[in-house]
Amino acid sequence: MSERSTEEAVVLLTNVRPWGGPAADILIERGTIAAVEPHDPGRPARPARPARPEAAPGETIDGRGLLALPGLINAHAHLDKSWWGREWVPYGGEATTQGRIAHERAHRDELGIPSPDSTLQLLQALVAQGTTAFRSHVDVDLGVGLRGISVVREAVAALGVPVALEIVAFPQDGVLRRPGVLELLDRAAAEGADHIGGLDPALIDRDPVGQLDALFEIADRRGVGLDIHLHEGGELGAFEYELILERTRALGLAGRVNVAHGFAIGDLPAARQRALVEELREAGVSITTVAPINASRLPLAELRAAGVPVGLGTDGIRDLWGPYGDGDMLRLATRLAQLSGARRDEELTDVVRLATSDAAGFVGRPVHDLVPGAPADIVLVHAQNVPEALVIAPPRELVLVGGLRVV
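-> structure tokens emitted (407 positions)
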């Protein structure tokens, strides 16, 4: 990774095709896109030195007519859990949520999880694949305390490039059933976590009203977001959606509450599903998915049409919950498109936007796109157009993070 400061970086990226459009030149200053102009083959080989006397000499990168996309956004990661970069770890737990929790708790210490080294190696691989912004759920419990948050922040700082990071203090082992966890979540929020999490309020804590009341109280008092794992399906999951919506409206937390997974919405009859989508829109509650192949499908088109923010994330990657995952967000977007039945070019492009520019809010950015004023997070690939880039998920030819070259 580069060690050059974004404060020094002046870059002219020439002859690229933003979103597959006409060839353009992108000027980057201070880690931000300063201008996007039609490609000029006669432009000087180096960008003009800006008026700032402290600015470093400019660098020009020939984009060779490649397709340009904004950096990919991983809106649901678990960066603290992975054994990436180590010897293979066989999975030995029961294939249930509670079984996976128990297996992880029994074996994470012997593997040194959370590990700054594994987290850094994982991040290096993900950034090289074009992911430049993360929302990471980080375990907070009686065994690890808040150490996982420090580990993730340390690894991100060691990258040497300015990836965006939002932290969710995540009670993976339950909230109410583990006395002391609420206090840890409150402390995490007080010490700078962007969100606090929750997990299956009925099946894990056996008290959906109690868990959600406690979590919403902290979020409201501390001014942080809520990001709640909801694996429960059917009527039980729908009931929990209703509890979340009710509290979001009552406390005025529109735009600060997210439901992760939320499989229940895919189980509902069409009319009730449409009503729930409309309630999510009105309450300002978003959804994140990890494109699971063995769960009820989200009504992706309906959610997007209604304006409900939808984010995509990897979930865990090669951890004690399972051995799968390479972290490639573009490849994951391909899977989401397939599961959603997307075929037309505009549908395929929508999925890429969902995994890039449309996910800006999930990492606290007002804009994340190939436009002036946006962070200079840019990915170049060999593809005719955006649909082809999604379908074939080609190698990343160039990755810039804040204008700094990674690949």
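The longest strand covers residues 10-18.
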